[in-house]
User: Fold these one by one.
Assistant:
Number 1:
Amino acid sequence: MAAFVLNVVLGLVGTHLAHAADEDGYDLWLRYRALPAAQKTALAAAATGIAAPDDTPTVRAAAAELKRGLAGMLGRAPDAIPANAKVRAGTIVLARATLPAGLADADAVRRDLASVGSEGYVVRRTRQDGVPVTLIAANSDIGLLYGSFAWLRQLQLGTAPDGIALADKPALPLRVLNHWDNLDRTVERGYAGESIWNWWELPNIIDPRYTDYARANASLGINGSVLNNVNAKAEVLSPAFIAKAAAIANVLRPYGIRVYLSVRWSTPLELKETKTADPLDPAVAAWWARKADEIYRTIPDFGGFLVKANSEGQPGPQDYGRNHADGANMLARALAPHKGIVMWRAFVYSPPAHPNQVSDRAAQAYDQFKPLDGKFDKNVLVQVKNGAIDFQPREPAHPLFGAMPDTPLVMEFQVTKEYLGFATHLVYLGSLFQETLRFDTRAGNQPMTVARVLEGAQDGRVGGIAGVANIGSSRNWTGSTFDQANWYAYGRLAWNPDLDSRAIAREWAGQTFAPDARVVDPVVAMMMRSREAVVDYMTPLGLHHMMGTGHHYGPAPWVDDLARADWNPVYYHRADKNGIGFDRTAKGSNAVAQYAPEVARRFADPATTPPEFLLWFHHLPWDYRMPDGRTLWTDLVAHYDHGVAEVAAMQAEWQRLRPFVDARRFDDVAQRLAQQQREAAWWRDACIAYFQHQSGLPLPAGVRAPAQPLDYYRKQAFPFAPGHG
Amino acid sequence: MAAFVLNVVLGLVGTHLAHAADEDGYDLWLRYRALPAAQKTALAAAATGIAAPDDTPTVRAAAAELKRGLAGMLGRAPDAIPANAKVRAGTIVLARATLPAGLADADAVRRDLASVGSEGYVVRRTRQDGVPVTLIAANSDIGLLYGSFAWLRQLQLGTAPDGIALADKPALPLRVLNHWDNLDRTVERGYAGESIWNWWELPNIIDPRYTDYARANASLGINGSVLNNVNAKAEVLSPAFIAKAAAIANVLRPYGIRVYLSVRWSTPLELKETKTADPLDPAVAAWWARKADEIYRTIPDFGGFLVKANSEGQPGPQDYGRNHADGANMLARALAPHKGIVMWRAFVYSPPAHPNQVSDRAAQAYDQFKPLDGKFDKNVLVQVKNGAIDFQPREPAHPLFGAMPDTPLVMEFQVTKEYLGFATHLVYLGSLFQETLRFDTRAGNQPMTVARVLEGAQDGRVGGIAGVANIGSSRNWTGSTFDQANWYAYGRLAWNPDLDSRAIAREWAGQTFAPDARVVDPVVAMMMRSREAVVDYMTPLGLHHMMGTGHHYGPAPWVDDLARADWNPVYYHRADKNGIGFDRTAKGSNAVAQYAPEVARRFADPATTPPEFLLWFHHLPWDYRMPDGRTLWTDLVAHYDHGVAEVAAMQAEWQRLRPFVDARRFDDVAQRLAQQQREAAWWRDACIAYFQHQSGLPLPAGVRAPAQPLDYYRKQAFPFAPGHG
């Protein structure tokens, strides 16, 4: 009976879900699949033609996207309505700055337009000369493109055309992807194949894929792309590579995406064109000024430079006794005449000057950058990772966010899952991004979330947001279906940091699978439990940096033999027979003091520290009493078991979705979930074996012993792991 | 008026060519596009249903391919006819070994079947129980699959169903691809992206692309795949990687493709599981026997090993004072109980033992292997490159083909264009393959082409054929549309070495673009001039090995500073003020003597040496009088200019095809041809500048001077060229 009812319901809703044609993921969330009959009829009446200026590449891109989307959803492309033709019912009218005559609610639209700024849009059903139209209005071309994508998104989600009324603008002016792509096409921390930039064939052979990249990013409002790895090579600034970047810029430009490059500090020295790389040396400054001029001759709207300097062996101004501001400002002055910017990374951590020196990697970026607050030129932004270590499954927000009120800051999120299971483990990062953006720094002793900091709520220094891309030449762009969701979520939060990650997941699932609760609800439920699952089976209770050497895949909490102490997992958890955790209170490194006093006080006391950060801030005995009454050891083990159980639950949830997802994507997700299940158990077993070894404690009652002895886990090696770490 | 006529003609033939939907090349030559109306009607009547046993994966694959192909061409998939159903008109009947009752010409079919062997097929229109059917008959499952593909090929080419009558079998039992794919997914000499084998995600996450790889190869009759680079790593024989190979083997098996691995000679030593790698050491032999047993437990039909030993720094039996036969036979004995084979590469060339020793790289494989003729175990084949240097645009056939009558030989062709312009230059290699296969070795002083040698026409030693694959994870598999043709041509010649390369090109073009003379004729004309064009603008008149160091891209005839003399281009052309060319006659290295006497005599005298091999065998003065009356210098320059002109002609030809090819593929080919044009001119200019510098001669009258001085060409550098050479 249940099956009969299900079939009837399927019939009512539309059987387009059952036996759906295989999809390879290339279309991302821009699938524009045929609508069910009733919706198709309604949309067809509301999309008879497109009336748009045909005068710029961006507006043409908007019109082309509308045509593509509507052709997919309706089965028929709408007509292009000539400029002076009489408007007819169902026209989609694109209006840039000037509204068409005869618009029913022109004043209201003008008021909205006045509030959406240079990149925003207004979309509404209205009447022009008495006939119903859809108006997409903006103050600029790019607003028309963003508005078109926003309208199409609503249609894909099943919203009736009459019900769509939008007025939106981005919260931040700088919303970029950072590609860690090397010039040999490998991708550092890339798990989606090689770089999408075919450097060898550029600039003369242009892969049409670059256009689809631009479309996908424009659909999210991403407006910048740093093309190459922060571990940069001097060659990227050679004439040959500038020409390649220019060719890419030409494809991205109509979609509102500017091109940026990561630059290596020592470039002029390596090219033997200067004798030093001292930023205060006039010859060096002159070289960079000439280089900037050269770049802007072929890329007039070049965005600027991203710089990793004096970090992990990269050269920088400190090599010459200068500081980060000296370096950043020199570059900034080379770019300023061209309106370019410098994004200078704060990801720095140095080995201790003396072997006995107490050193907390988590404290060093603050130590180096806080004193420089306010000392950067106007066109310099300081780019700060979400947390103070390195893109762990969970980190408290970086203290710098609350500590540099006079410097515009850029949030650096990692969309690619370097420490979270590559493209194998299903982990929805929207939860992680949201957690950081909503963190209240309490800077100035008032509510001041990280999002507000980026938006310039402190002293007016408007920053931006960057995502280390998970994009590669894999057919589905990101290596797995659900890793597409992380690109999507990053882009949506870059546009509006206040969006809810669950709502974003619902948008993504509706467009990527179907706007049907029978799919969306379970998919989103699975996504929303996935982040906490990975925290639990990898690094619960504030543990961090326990991944395998180099590739960062798989458990290796035992590693203690790397060249620098602060590369060893044991440095971060300090587990021994007495306890576990890193003391960042005044008794330890005192890194808590880098937070605002109210936050510092909360983190300074284990009793007030949220359990999810406990071992980030505290070194505690194994029998420390947790809020739930259990010992720390028992709780830790319980978290590991919970993580494994969560993955099993995710797998079971996914299996129920088989009737609703095409076989190809279904099977691929299922194979990955099965692998994630095995690996979650591996993480759990290896870590429990190790911590049991360190503590000497018996397993809590009823807990299953690890499948193998500790030595088995220690021996696991992965010589050819992707990501080139 | 002409346009009107053209449009009428287009309308008559079918307008499916005009405004064709963009294609990305993924479907290769298996596009199965909708037929024009008249042909569709005829085929629909002849393809109403498929009656096939449903009892093995291979037969199911055949039925699935028929269904796919017919659904594409007809717009409707034929029905699956149950086993005992009454046959109806238009059924496609698959018959393995046993013919169905009621077959009209059963005796004739049986006679054909008796002649097509274990892999062949018979396809004909006939009657069963009085109704017209298409019979696809074979002695084995794989013959049914090959027959199905052959029938579909004819249909795609527009042959009427009633006109298709085929009886065919492959000439060689071993028809393999060699992937030079590394375990980190890079591809040596690969220009089509990274390896298609996603090693990291194997064995548990299976890319559906592997199935399409299998289909493409089965459509050509390729029946083996060596998965990994001949510059092999010990890890490929680890349990983890054997499991990955087994997972691939499971996908390929239904398509008749066996999996092989390249193995590193020193593996047991590197794994510290033996103390030596001496092939005569019992512990070493025992190790390999155990390793073979291990492999066959998960891959019961594992093909065997491909071995590069004592070549270019790879370890081998000579490190222990043993010879190639000692090494090959030890491995062969490990594989023999499992019916596996060893393909032992003859690509060896050693630096001279003494600095003054005269050494001709082209002579060394013969010197090392000829004495071993007949000394290999039955399941060893010696794999020989098509020429004695290394996959140049033109080489005379390798002398070993006429010199090892008691050893089964494998031809090694290079399908990937290491020395022929990567995936940028359009070069149809069918011409090159055919030239080598039809070369008459005159072994035994009788007609004995290389093809006949491979087929065992000498002492019954049946060999095989191998192609170094040009396949990667690029969407179109091979990096460019026309590089697909080289995969296709290799496969067709592997099946039947007597096929004509122009006929193969027509097949390929008809399936890849459209079976329409307006497309096929110009496309094939372009393809058939392309090989000689590249010879002319790179290395005319028998010149060879002049490509850039490492990456082998671009002209570098001046290089003279590499660690080994026989790596330097100057070693190969020896151009100085007096002359140019490598003397391989008795006055020089006497490598000509490695050919049969009749051939050796022909090549020993410049007057009887074909001009295309002149400078391969002779060092001649610049004023040597060529058959056409011009001096060698003038002729050389003329060849360079002709090559450049040929590319311009190819470009012009392609431009005329714009109305007949989808925009996406058209533009991509056009961009590549434009790049090839620029690079042909670069080759021409650089080589003429250099040879002019060496010879001190003025340019022939009317010849355009190189665009830049010689130093400009010498300075060109390509630090990030693909192919990891």
Number 2:
Amino acid sequence: MAYKENYPSVLLSEAVEAISSLPGVGRRSALRLALHLLKQPAENVHHFTEAINHLRDDVCYCRRCRMISDSELCAICADHSRDQRTICVVESVRDVMSIEATGQYHGVYHVLGGIISPIAGVGPSDLTIRELAERVNTLEAPSEAEVILALSGDVEGETTAFYIYRQIEASGIKVSTLARGLGFGDDLEYADALTLGRSLTNRQIFQP
Amino acid sequence: MAYKENYPSVLLSEAVEAISSLPGVGRRSALRLALHLLKQPAENVHHFTEAINHLRDDVCYCRRCRMISDSELCAICADHSRDQRTICVVESVRDVMSIEATGQYHGVYHVLGGIISPIAGVGPSDLTIRELAERVNTLEAPSEAEVILALSGDVEGETTAFYIYRQIEASGIKVSTLARGLGFGDDLEYADALTLGRSLTNRQIFQP
């Protein structure tokens, strides 16, 4: 912006600076948001900032699955109506929420807190893979339990899936991954070759 | 969102609630931002919230033009190299920044802090129109000074312009408004009838 270095107030430019540090928020929208907040009653703005500080400072994670939680054990891990012997391994908190939103999964989760990515400098030790292995090893009759690797379909995801598999295969636990293929309602014409190829390889018996 | 009432943590849902109260930020992006902030070092998040509180609590406004300012008199009102007898009346702080960005205006400003809008319940007394009138009346030889009404071209803008004109015309000050017409590079074909009509009415002598 032309007046990037030319804000009418240091306070404003610092607020814009801070807000535009958020992902996907440019200087223009940061300015719009700052001026919006400026118009709000002080108590609303304080409520806004307190909610954020409160989240950052006081959030805790489930000791078992590492999901964000208000208690030591998250609602899902504490729920005995859920299959505690089917563990869905995901990259992030958000993935858990997405899967919960489907309402079609009744097992439990394990949140890795990231994905193995040499480029981003994220190694296995930065993730909760060791904790997952311990979890698997403490299961009774692991051969009758299952770990679902619900990771993204890219190289990082596959690398991470393979690494995790190596860590837990000795336990004899069943390890599965998400089905890959055309999305519901996807147009064949626009599907990338890899996806299309996989959905051919993993084709299923037609059940009318 | 399916899990709108179903966040894994009260802290998270409260933060999402707060963030999605921002204009143009839906629950989905609010969640994305909340989880982003959660990943940042605590000091960064505190810096972020402090910058916002600091802006809201400590910002002040120029006593003359009501622009956001760090001092009692803003940089523009304090700048004697600027024409203090040409006052550009705008709706908001943002308009001042936009006009400053053009680098083509060398007068001063008056920020109304809004626009007359019966629907939004904003009346003349909610704006700094009285202060503007006082400012005009304290000018020496107002007939040689000028007020530029740089307000939006919609009904509210025109209503406000007319109201202000009525308040200051007695002073004999010259009152002008922004030229209305086709934007630079606009295609005639796509201009709305009102704009096109105005740019015909206000046509100017061609100066090659």
